[in-house]
Protein 1
Amino acid sequence: MQPQPPHMRHVLLAILYGIAGVCILTLQPLVFGPMVAAGRLTESQMGLQSGVETAALALTSALLPGWLSGAHFRTKLVGLAAVMVGCNMLTTLPISPVALIGLRGVCGLAEGGILAGAFIVIFATPNPDRANALFLVISNILIAVLAYLVPSWLVPNYGFSSSFWLMSGLGAMSVLLAILLRHKPEQFASPVMGWRTWPNGTYMILAGIVAQNGALMAAWAFLESTARHHGFSASTVGLSASLAVVTQICGALAITLGGYRLPAGPALVLGSIGMGASAFWLGHPQNTATFIVANCLLGFLWLTLTPLGIKRIVEIEPTRQAVYMTAPAQFAGLSMGPFISSYFVSDTNVEPAYLVAGLLGLAAGLIFLAVLHTASPNEQIA
Protein backbone atom coordinates (compact mmCIF):
# COMPACT_ATOMS: atom_id res chain seq x y z
CA MET A 1 0.00 0.00 0.00
CA GLN A 2 1.30 3.39 -1.00
CA PRO A 3 1.53 6.17 1.62
CA GLN A 4 -0.89 9.10 1.36
CA PRO A 5 0.44 11.86 -0.93
CA PRO A 6 2.55 14.19 1.22
CA HIS A 7 2.13 17.95 1.48
CA MET A 8 4.67 19.96 -0.52
CA ARG A 9 6.13 21.29 2.75
CA HIS A 10 6.92 17.72 3.79
CA VAL A 11 8.44 16.99 0.39
CA LEU A 12 10.81 19.95 0.73
CA LEU A 13 11.80 18.93 4.26
CA ALA A 14 12.47 15.38 3.05
CA ILE A 15 14.60 16.68 0.19
CA LEU A 16 16.69 18.79 2.57
CA TYR A 17 16.96 15.85 4.98
CA GLY A 18 18.19 13.55 2.24
CA ILE A 19 21.04 15.84 1.20
CA ALA A 20 23.22 14.50 4.03
CA GLY A 21 22.91 11.01 2.59
CA VAL A 22 23.57 11.85 -1.05
CA CYS A 23 26.35 14.44 -0.86
CA ILE A 24 29.11 11.86 -0.27
CA LEU A 25 28.51 10.46 -3.75
CA THR A 26 29.82 13.66 -5.34
CA LEU A 27 32.27 14.75 -2.64
CA GLN A 28 33.90 11.34 -2.20
CA PRO A 29 36.98 11.92 -4.40
CA LEU A 30 37.41 15.43 -2.99
CA VAL A 31 37.39 14.41 0.67
CA PHE A 32 39.31 11.13 0.37
CA GLY A 33 41.83 12.22 -2.28
CA PRO A 34 43.64 14.41 0.27
CA MET A 35 43.81 11.40 2.59
CA VAL A 36 45.83 9.63 -0.10
CA ALA A 37 48.14 12.63 -0.36
CA ALA A 38 48.52 12.59 3.43
CA GLY A 39 49.46 8.90 3.45
CA ARG A 40 46.32 7.68 5.25
CA LEU A 41 45.19 5.61 2.24
CA THR A 42 46.67 4.29 -0.99
CA GLU A 43 44.93 4.78 -4.34
CA SER A 44 43.60 1.21 -4.33
CA GLN A 45 42.45 1.51 -0.71
CA MET A 46 40.57 4.68 -1.62
CA GLY A 47 38.82 2.80 -4.41
CA LEU A 48 37.94 0.01 -1.99
CA GLN A 49 36.68 2.49 0.60
CA SER A 50 34.52 4.20 -2.00
CA GLY A 51 33.07 0.86 -3.07
CA VAL A 52 32.37 -0.32 0.48
CA GLU A 53 30.67 2.89 1.59
CA THR A 54 28.53 3.13 -1.51
CA ALA A 55 27.60 -0.58 -1.36
CA ALA A 56 26.47 -0.13 2.24
CA LEU A 57 24.47 2.92 1.19
CA ALA A 58 22.80 0.89 -1.57
CA LEU A 59 21.97 -1.96 0.82
CA THR A 60 20.09 0.07 3.40
CA SER A 61 18.37 2.27 0.82
CA ALA A 62 16.89 -0.97 -0.59
CA LEU A 63 16.04 -2.76 2.66
CA LEU A 64 14.97 -0.02 5.06
CA PRO A 65 11.92 1.66 3.44
CA GLY A 66 9.53 -0.91 4.88
CA TRP A 67 11.07 -0.68 8.36
CA LEU A 68 11.12 3.11 8.32
CA SER A 69 7.48 3.47 7.26
CA GLY A 70 4.66 3.49 9.79
CA ALA A 71 5.21 4.19 13.47
CA HIS A 72 8.10 6.26 14.84
CA PHE A 73 9.11 7.52 11.39
CA ARG A 74 10.71 10.71 12.70
CA THR A 75 12.53 8.96 15.54
CA LYS A 76 14.13 6.52 13.13
CA LEU A 77 15.21 9.32 10.83
CA VAL A 78 16.80 11.20 13.75
CA GLY A 79 18.71 8.07 14.78
CA LEU A 80 20.13 7.49 11.31
CA ALA A 81 21.33 11.08 11.01
CA ALA A 82 22.95 10.87 14.46
CA VAL A 83 24.91 7.76 13.39
CA MET A 84 26.19 9.64 10.37
CA VAL A 85 27.37 12.50 12.60
CA GLY A 86 29.29 10.10 14.83
CA CYS A 87 30.93 8.20 11.98
CA ASN A 88 32.24 11.37 10.37
CA MET A 89 33.65 12.58 13.67
CA LEU A 90 35.46 9.26 14.16
CA THR A 91 36.88 9.40 10.61
CA THR A 92 39.09 12.31 11.70
CA LEU A 93 40.93 10.05 14.19
CA PRO A 94 44.29 8.41 13.26
CA ILE A 95 43.00 4.85 12.70
CA SER A 96 44.26 2.09 10.39
CA PRO A 97 43.08 1.85 6.77
CA VAL A 98 41.13 -1.34 7.54
CA ALA A 99 39.34 0.30 10.47
CA LEU A 100 38.70 3.39 8.36
CA ILE A 101 37.13 1.36 5.56
CA GLY A 102 34.92 -0.46 8.09
CA LEU A 103 33.89 2.82 9.70
CA ARG A 104 32.95 4.29 6.34
CA GLY A 105 30.91 1.17 5.68
CA VAL A 106 28.88 1.89 8.83
CA CYS A 107 28.52 5.50 7.71
CA GLY A 108 27.24 4.25 4.36
CA LEU A 109 24.57 2.19 6.12
CA ALA A 110 23.34 5.34 7.87
CA GLU A 111 23.51 7.40 4.66
CA GLY A 112 21.43 4.81 2.83
CA GLY A 113 18.84 4.92 5.60
CA ILE A 114 18.71 8.71 5.35
CA LEU A 115 18.03 8.46 1.63
CA ALA A 116 15.43 5.74 2.14
CA GLY A 117 13.57 8.03 4.53
CA ALA A 118 13.66 10.89 2.04
CA PHE A 119 12.51 8.64 -0.81
CA ILE A 120 9.52 7.38 1.18
CA VAL A 121 8.17 10.92 1.01
CA ILE A 122 9.38 11.71 -2.53
CA PHE A 123 8.08 8.51 -4.15
CA ALA A 124 4.65 8.96 -2.55
CA THR A 125 4.03 12.07 -4.70
CA PRO A 126 1.81 11.83 -7.82
CA ASN A 127 4.84 12.33 -10.13
CA PRO A 128 7.88 10.70 -8.48
CA ASP A 129 10.15 11.29 -11.47
CA ARG A 130 9.61 15.07 -11.29
CA ALA A 131 9.87 15.06 -7.48
CA ASN A 132 13.14 13.15 -7.76
CA ALA A 133 14.41 15.68 -10.31
CA LEU A 134 13.53 18.47 -7.86
CA PHE A 135 15.50 16.62 -5.16
CA LEU A 136 18.48 16.44 -7.52
CA VAL A 137 18.25 20.15 -8.32
CA ILE A 138 18.06 21.34 -4.71
CA SER A 139 20.65 18.94 -3.33
CA ASN A 140 23.15 19.67 -6.06
CA ILE A 141 22.92 23.43 -5.61
CA LEU A 142 24.40 22.94 -2.14
CA ILE A 143 26.82 20.27 -3.37
CA ALA A 144 28.06 22.60 -6.12
CA VAL A 145 29.15 25.11 -3.49
CA LEU A 146 30.78 22.44 -1.34
CA ALA A 147 32.53 20.83 -4.31
CA TYR A 148 34.33 24.10 -4.94
CA LEU A 149 35.04 25.08 -1.33
CA VAL A 150 36.34 21.71 -0.10
CA PRO A 151 39.43 21.40 -2.38
CA SER A 152 40.08 25.09 -2.98
CA TRP A 153 39.62 26.55 0.51
CA LEU A 154 38.60 24.12 3.26
CA VAL A 155 41.24 21.38 2.92
CA PRO A 156 44.19 23.67 2.03
CA ASN A 157 43.52 25.85 5.09
CA TYR A 158 42.25 23.34 7.66
CA GLY A 159 43.43 19.91 6.53
CA PHE A 160 41.56 16.86 5.28
CA SER A 161 39.82 16.36 8.65
CA SER A 162 37.82 19.52 8.08
CA SER A 163 35.86 17.80 5.30
CA PHE A 164 34.50 15.26 7.76
CA TRP A 165 33.58 17.91 10.31
CA LEU A 166 31.63 19.50 7.49
CA MET A 167 29.88 16.17 6.82
CA SER A 168 29.09 15.93 10.52
CA GLY A 169 27.47 19.35 10.31
CA LEU A 170 25.27 18.19 7.44
CA GLY A 171 24.24 15.20 9.53
CA ALA A 172 23.36 17.48 12.45
CA MET A 173 21.24 19.58 10.08
CA SER A 174 19.37 16.41 9.11
CA VAL A 175 18.66 15.65 12.77
CA LEU A 176 16.86 19.00 13.07
CA LEU A 177 15.02 18.55 9.77
CA ALA A 178 13.80 15.11 10.82
CA ILE A 179 12.31 16.61 13.98
CA LEU A 180 10.38 19.11 11.83
CA LEU A 181 9.16 16.48 9.36
CA ARG A 182 5.63 15.60 10.52
CA HIS A 183 4.58 13.45 7.58
CA LYS A 184 3.31 10.05 8.76
CA PRO A 185 3.68 7.46 6.01
CA GLU A 186 1.49 4.38 6.13
CA GLN A 187 3.18 1.11 7.00
CA PHE A 188 4.11 -0.96 3.96
CA ALA A 189 6.15 -4.10 3.37
CA SER A 190 9.69 -3.84 2.10
CA PRO A 191 9.36 -3.18 -1.65
CA VAL A 192 12.07 -5.70 -2.49
CA MET A 193 9.84 -8.53 -1.24
CA GLY A 194 7.61 -8.25 -4.32
CA TRP A 195 10.37 -8.69 -6.89
CA ARG A 196 8.93 -11.94 -8.29
CA THR A 197 5.86 -10.13 -9.61
CA TRP A 198 7.72 -7.46 -11.59
CA PRO A 199 7.68 -7.52 -15.43
CA ASN A 200 10.84 -8.92 -17.02
CA GLY A 201 11.89 -5.57 -18.48
CA THR A 202 12.17 -4.18 -14.95
CA TYR A 203 15.26 -6.24 -14.16
CA MET A 204 17.05 -5.22 -17.34
CA ILE A 205 16.38 -1.55 -16.68
CA LEU A 206 17.73 -1.90 -13.15
CA ALA A 207 20.83 -3.64 -14.54
CA GLY A 208 21.30 -0.78 -17.00
CA ILE A 209 21.05 1.72 -14.15
CA VAL A 210 23.73 -0.22 -12.26
CA ALA A 211 26.12 -0.14 -15.24
CA GLN A 212 25.35 3.51 -15.99
CA ASN A 213 26.21 4.66 -12.48
CA GLY A 214 29.21 2.34 -12.37
CA ALA A 215 30.60 4.25 -15.35
CA LEU A 216 30.19 7.52 -13.49
CA MET A 217 31.91 6.63 -10.24
CA ALA A 218 34.62 4.48 -11.83
CA ALA A 219 35.80 7.81 -13.25
CA TRP A 220 34.86 10.23 -10.47
CA ALA A 221 36.48 8.23 -7.68
CA PHE A 222 39.86 9.14 -9.19
CA LEU A 223 39.09 12.72 -10.22
CA GLU A 224 41.43 14.36 -7.71
CA SER A 225 44.17 11.81 -8.42
CA THR A 226 43.87 12.38 -12.19
CA ALA A 227 44.21 16.13 -11.73
CA ARG A 228 47.23 15.66 -9.48
CA HIS A 229 48.95 13.32 -11.96
CA HIS A 230 48.42 15.84 -14.78
CA GLY A 231 49.72 18.73 -12.69
CA PHE A 232 46.42 20.58 -12.36
CA SER A 233 46.01 22.83 -9.33
CA ALA A 234 43.59 22.35 -6.44
CA SER A 235 41.58 25.32 -7.66
CA THR A 236 41.19 23.61 -11.05
CA VAL A 237 39.86 20.50 -9.33
CA GLY A 238 37.44 22.61 -7.31
CA LEU A 239 36.29 24.54 -10.36
CA SER A 240 35.82 21.36 -12.39
CA ALA A 241 33.88 19.64 -9.62
CA SER A 242 31.65 22.63 -8.91
CA LEU A 243 30.92 23.31 -12.59
CA ALA A 244 30.12 19.63 -13.06
CA VAL A 245 27.57 19.89 -10.27
CA VAL A 246 26.13 23.01 -11.91
CA THR A 247 25.66 21.06 -15.15
CA GLN A 248 24.06 18.26 -13.13
CA ILE A 249 21.60 20.81 -11.78
CA CYS A 250 20.90 22.01 -15.32
CA GLY A 251 20.20 18.46 -16.44
CA ALA A 252 17.85 17.70 -13.55
CA LEU A 253 16.16 21.09 -13.90
CA ALA A 254 15.56 20.44 -17.59
CA ILE A 255 13.76 17.21 -16.69
CA THR A 256 11.73 18.97 -13.98
CA LEU A 257 10.56 21.71 -16.33
CA GLY A 258 9.65 19.58 -19.33
CA GLY A 259 12.25 16.99 -20.19
CA TYR A 260 10.22 14.33 -18.33
CA ARG A 261 8.14 14.14 -21.53
CA LEU A 262 11.10 12.68 -23.45
CA PRO A 263 10.83 9.01 -24.51
CA ALA A 264 12.91 7.41 -21.78
CA GLY A 265 14.10 4.38 -23.74
CA PRO A 266 16.05 6.07 -26.56
CA ALA A 267 17.31 8.78 -24.19
CA LEU A 268 18.76 6.17 -21.85
CA VAL A 269 20.48 4.32 -24.72
CA LEU A 270 22.16 7.37 -26.24
CA GLY A 271 22.86 9.09 -22.93
CA SER A 272 24.54 6.05 -21.38
CA ILE A 273 26.89 5.64 -24.34
CA GLY A 274 27.62 9.36 -24.11
CA MET A 275 28.44 8.95 -20.41
CA GLY A 276 30.95 6.22 -21.21
CA ALA A 277 32.64 8.35 -23.86
CA SER A 278 32.76 11.39 -21.56
CA ALA A 279 34.23 9.33 -18.72
CA PHE A 280 36.99 7.98 -20.95
CA TRP A 281 37.77 11.51 -22.18
CA LEU A 282 37.94 12.75 -18.58
CA GLY A 283 40.80 10.36 -17.87
CA HIS A 284 42.82 11.60 -20.84
CA PRO A 285 42.64 15.42 -20.69
CA GLN A 286 44.78 17.42 -23.09
CA ASN A 287 44.62 20.48 -20.83
CA THR A 288 42.58 22.01 -18.01
CA ALA A 289 39.81 23.05 -20.40
CA THR A 290 39.18 19.53 -21.68
CA PHE A 291 39.38 18.21 -18.10
CA ILE A 292 36.61 20.60 -17.06
CA VAL A 293 34.45 20.13 -20.18
CA ALA A 294 34.56 16.33 -20.01
CA ASN A 295 33.65 16.41 -16.33
CA CYS A 296 30.75 18.80 -16.95
CA LEU A 297 29.39 16.69 -19.81
CA LEU A 298 29.56 13.57 -17.66
CA GLY A 299 27.68 15.29 -14.83
CA PHE A 300 25.03 16.72 -17.16
CA LEU A 301 24.24 13.36 -18.73
CA TRP A 302 24.14 11.60 -15.37
CA LEU A 303 21.43 13.70 -13.74
CA THR A 304 19.50 14.09 -16.97
CA LEU A 305 19.17 10.32 -17.23
CA THR A 306 18.52 9.55 -13.55
CA PRO A 307 14.88 10.77 -13.44
CA LEU A 308 14.22 9.15 -16.82
CA GLY A 309 15.23 5.81 -15.34
CA ILE A 310 12.61 6.35 -12.64
CA LYS A 311 10.01 7.25 -15.27
CA ARG A 312 10.78 4.06 -17.19
CA ILE A 313 10.44 1.87 -14.11
CA VAL A 314 7.13 3.46 -13.06
CA GLU A 315 5.60 2.98 -16.50
CA ILE A 316 6.69 -0.65 -16.70
CA GLU A 317 5.83 -1.53 -13.09
CA PRO A 318 2.96 0.81 -12.09
CA THR A 319 2.51 -0.55 -8.53
CA ARG A 320 5.65 1.49 -7.67
CA GLN A 321 7.33 -1.32 -5.78
CA ALA A 322 10.26 -1.46 -8.19
CA VAL A 323 10.76 2.31 -8.13
CA TYR A 324 12.30 1.94 -4.67
CA MET A 325 14.98 -0.23 -6.29
CA THR A 326 16.14 2.51 -8.67
CA ALA A 327 18.11 4.26 -5.93
CA PRO A 328 19.77 1.01 -4.70
CA ALA A 329 20.59 0.19 -8.32
CA GLN A 330 22.24 3.60 -8.70
CA PHE A 331 24.23 3.13 -5.51
CA ALA A 332 25.18 -0.43 -6.41
CA GLY A 333 26.61 0.93 -9.64
CA LEU A 334 28.37 3.78 -7.87
CA SER A 335 29.91 1.16 -5.60
CA MET A 336 30.79 -1.29 -8.36
CA GLY A 337 32.60 1.25 -10.52
CA PRO A 338 35.41 2.25 -8.14
CA PHE A 339 35.58 -1.30 -6.74
CA ILE A 340 36.39 -2.70 -10.19
CA SER A 341 38.71 0.20 -10.99
CA SER A 342 40.68 -0.30 -7.78
CA TYR A 343 42.08 -3.58 -9.17
CA PHE A 344 43.60 -1.87 -12.21
CA VAL A 345 44.99 1.41 -10.87
CA SER A 346 48.27 2.07 -9.12
CA ASP A 347 49.75 4.97 -7.20
CA THR A 348 51.37 6.19 -10.43
CA ASN A 349 48.67 5.37 -13.02
CA VAL A 350 44.89 5.75 -12.68
CA GLU A 351 44.07 5.83 -16.41
CA PRO A 352 42.74 2.21 -16.43
CA ALA A 353 39.83 3.41 -14.27
CA TYR A 354 38.57 5.46 -17.20
CA LEU A 355 38.66 2.50 -19.56
CA VAL A 356 36.51 0.64 -17.03
CA ALA A 357 34.16 3.63 -16.97
CA GLY A 358 33.90 3.76 -20.75
CA LEU A 359 33.10 0.06 -21.03
CA LEU A 360 30.44 0.27 -18.31
CA GLY A 361 28.76 3.18 -20.10
CA LEU A 362 28.71 1.20 -23.33
CA ALA A 363 27.31 -1.84 -21.50
CA ALA A 364 24.51 0.29 -20.02
CA GLY A 365 23.57 1.61 -23.46
CA LEU A 366 23.45 -1.91 -24.90
CA ILE A 367 21.28 -3.15 -22.01
CA PHE A 368 18.76 -0.34 -22.50
CA LEU A 369 18.82 -1.03 -26.24
CA ALA A 370 18.08 -4.71 -25.59
CA VAL A 371 15.03 -3.74 -23.53
CA LEU A 372 13.65 -1.77 -26.47
CA HIS A 373 13.71 -4.87 -28.65
CA THR A 374 12.90 -7.64 -26.18
CA ALA A 375 10.23 -6.20 -23.84
CA SER A 376 6.66 -7.26 -24.58
CA PRO A 377 4.29 -4.61 -25.95
CA ASN A 378 2.63 -4.00 -22.58
CA GLU A 379 6.05 -3.41 -21.06
CA GLN A 380 7.19 -0.90 -23.66
CA ILE A 381 7.52 2.77 -22.75
CA ALA A 382 6.32 5.37 -25.16
Note: Residues 375-382 have pLDDT under 50 and may be disordered.
Protein 2
Amino acid sequence: MSRDFAEARKENVIPIPTNFDVKLLVTPAKSKLSAIRFFDDVTKIMISDGKTKEEWEKAREGYKAYGIEQAIKEVNEKVQELGIK
Protein backbone atom coordinates (compact mmCIF):
# COMPACT_ATOMS: atom_id res chain seq x y z
CA MET A 1 0.00 0.00 0.00
CA SER A 2 2.73 2.49 0.88
CA ARG A 3 4.55 1.59 -2.32
CA ASP A 4 1.38 2.41 -4.29
CA PHE A 5 1.13 5.74 -2.51
CA ALA A 6 4.78 6.51 -3.21
CA GLU A 7 4.35 5.67 -6.88
CA ALA A 8 1.20 7.81 -7.13
CA ARG A 9 3.05 10.76 -5.57
CA LYS A 10 5.99 10.26 -7.88
CA GLU A 11 3.69 10.34 -10.91
CA ASN A 12 1.35 13.14 -9.80
CA VAL A 13 3.19 15.56 -7.54
CA ILE A 14 5.08 18.49 -8.97
CA PRO A 15 7.92 19.59 -6.69
CA ILE A 16 8.01 23.21 -5.58
CA PRO A 17 10.82 25.01 -7.38
CA THR A 18 13.47 25.91 -4.81
CA ASN A 19 16.31 28.33 -5.36
CA PHE A 20 18.98 26.77 -3.17
CA ASP A 21 21.30 29.72 -3.77
CA VAL A 22 18.84 31.83 -1.76
CA LYS A 23 17.78 29.12 0.66
CA LEU A 24 21.37 28.45 1.69
CA LEU A 25 22.42 32.10 2.04
CA VAL A 26 23.71 32.97 5.46
CA THR A 27 23.18 36.40 7.00
CA PRO A 28 23.38 37.40 10.67
CA ALA A 29 19.64 38.00 11.08
CA LYS A 30 18.67 34.92 9.08
CA SER A 31 20.83 32.75 11.32
CA LYS A 32 18.77 33.82 14.33
CA LEU A 33 15.58 32.56 12.68
CA SER A 34 16.54 28.93 13.27
CA ALA A 35 14.93 29.30 16.70
CA ILE A 36 11.51 29.81 15.07
CA ARG A 37 9.48 26.62 14.89
CA PHE A 38 7.40 27.42 11.80
CA PHE A 39 5.95 23.95 11.41
CA ASP A 40 4.87 23.85 15.05
CA ASP A 41 3.10 27.18 14.59
CA VAL A 42 1.35 26.05 11.42
CA THR A 43 0.23 22.84 13.11
CA LYS A 44 -1.13 24.75 16.12
CA ILE A 45 -3.01 27.09 13.81
CA MET A 46 -4.47 24.21 11.81
CA ILE A 47 -5.81 22.47 14.91
CA SER A 48 -6.91 25.65 16.68
CA ASP A 49 -10.51 26.49 17.48
CA GLY A 50 -11.08 28.14 14.12
CA LYS A 51 -9.63 31.58 14.78
CA THR A 52 -6.90 31.00 12.23
CA LYS A 53 -6.48 34.62 11.19
CA GLU A 54 -5.92 35.74 14.78
CA GLU A 55 -3.58 32.82 15.46
CA TRP A 56 -1.57 33.58 12.32
CA GLU A 57 -1.26 37.26 13.28
CA LYS A 58 -0.04 36.21 16.73
CA ALA A 59 2.58 33.95 15.15
CA ARG A 60 3.69 36.74 12.80
CA GLU A 61 4.17 39.10 15.72
CA GLY A 62 6.38 36.46 17.33
CA TYR A 63 8.43 36.20 14.14
CA LYS A 64 8.91 39.96 14.18
CA ALA A 65 10.36 39.65 17.69
CA TYR A 66 12.96 37.23 16.26
CA GLY A 67 13.87 39.80 13.58
CA ILE A 68 12.27 38.26 10.52
CA GLU A 69 11.89 41.64 8.83
CA GLN A 70 15.62 42.35 9.19
CA ALA A 71 16.41 38.86 7.90
CA ILE A 72 14.27 39.42 4.80
CA LYS A 73 15.99 42.76 4.20
CA GLU A 74 19.46 41.21 4.56
CA VAL A 75 18.67 38.30 2.25
CA ASN A 76 17.19 40.60 -0.41
CA GLU A 77 20.28 42.83 -0.26
CA LYS A 78 22.61 39.81 -0.49
CA VAL A 79 20.66 38.38 -3.44
CA GLN A 80 21.02 41.67 -5.30
CA GLU A 81 24.68 41.94 -4.37
CA LEU A 82 25.40 38.44 -5.70
CA GLY A 83 23.15 38.82 -8.74
CA ILE A 84 21.06 35.76 -7.83
CA LYS A 85 17.87 35.44 -9.89
Note: DSSP finds six helices and no strands in the chain.
